[in-house]
């Protein structure tokens, strides 16, 4: 069974809903999950928050969090996940923020640094990806990792 199909089956079986707040994945998680017929029963929507303005104004990420930790941080993806979960009234949420490349990296946060947060009701788990495999692979790797994290929380 395909990962997106498995996620949909698990969400439907548990009568749960999902939303996403995506920066570096640009809506890729939402597109993958909704590629399955019938996904509208559990997927409510997504915010592609590529700019910090959208992170703060739509997802209610605290500007102080962005100032202190940056957009690519555990703190920011936690607030993004909670923000989209509240906005869309969902049981589960996935948030991503990172430096997909090829540019944009810094010594502290090189290209390939990506944070993922997966919220399931009141629980939240995190993953930090590192290593640059090129923009496309960095994004694909993040989509797969995020959905695998959600699958583990749902099992």
3D structure, described in words:
With 155 residues, this protein is α/β, with parallel strands linked by helices. The chain has a single domain, classed as CinA-like (Maf protein, Alpha-Beta Complex), CATH 3.90.950. Helices cover 42% and strands 21% of the residues. The protein has 6 helices and 5 strands. The protein has helices at residues 3-13, 28-33, 52-57, 63-69, 74-88, 135-154, and strands at residues 18-22, 43-48, 92-98, 114-120, 123-129. A hairpin with a 2-residue loop joins strand 4 and strand 5. Helix 1 (3-13) packs parallel to helix 6 (135-154). The protein is globular, with a radius of gyration of 14 Å. The model has no long low-confidence stretch (mean pLDDT 96).
Topology:
Blueprint: H1 3-13, E1 18-22, H2 28-33, E2 43-48, H3 52-57, H4 63-69, H5 74-88, E3 92-98, E4 114-120, E5 123-129, H6 135-154
Parallel strand pairs: 1-2, 1-3
Antiparallel strand pairs: 3-4, 4-5
- In whole angstroms, the N-to-C terminal distance is 15 Å
CATH fold annotation: Maf protein
Structural class: alpha/beta
Low-confidence stretches: none
Radius of gyration: 14 Å
Number of strands: 5
CATH class: Alpha Beta
Query: How would you sum up the major sheet?
Result: 5 strands, mixed
Strand content: 15-25%
Mean pLDDT: 96
The dominant shape is globular
Question: Keywords, please?
Answer:
155 residues, alpha/beta, Maf protein, 6 helices, 5 strands, 42% helix, 21% strand, globular
